[in-house]
Amino acid sequence: VQLVESGGGLVQPGESPRLSCTVSGFAFSSWYMSGARQAPGKGLEWVSSLSKDGSNTYYADFVKGRFTISRDNAKNTVFLQMNSLKSEDTALYYCATGTDFGYWGQGTQVTVSS
Fold this sequence. Notes:
Elements: E1 2-6, E2 9-11, E3 18-24, E4 33-38, E5 44-50, E6 57-59, E7 67-72, E8 77-82, E9 91-97, E10 108-112
Parallel strand pairs: 2-10
Antiparallel strand pairs: 1-3, 3-8, 4-5, 4-9, 5-6, 7-8, 9-10
């Protein structure tokens, strides 16, 4: 099982990057997928999850209304569209399988700074 995140970088407040996570080695469409993040000096936070077909999505309160999670099962990829970024969104962002985070990617750093 391999998960590879991309799309992070240095962004300015208010910008809208999109993170991608491409997976291989398991039946992607059979699994819920989740996103989490870890800010400098802080613990891991759950960010979002979505169901196998993407019809049901779930968000932490601190991203609700700003972030959108989606998936393309044909491409084995999950996306996290991030809007209205704030400095406090600076973190290492991970994707993971299921809602129990069985498998993880290596993470992609998002730094929000002007």
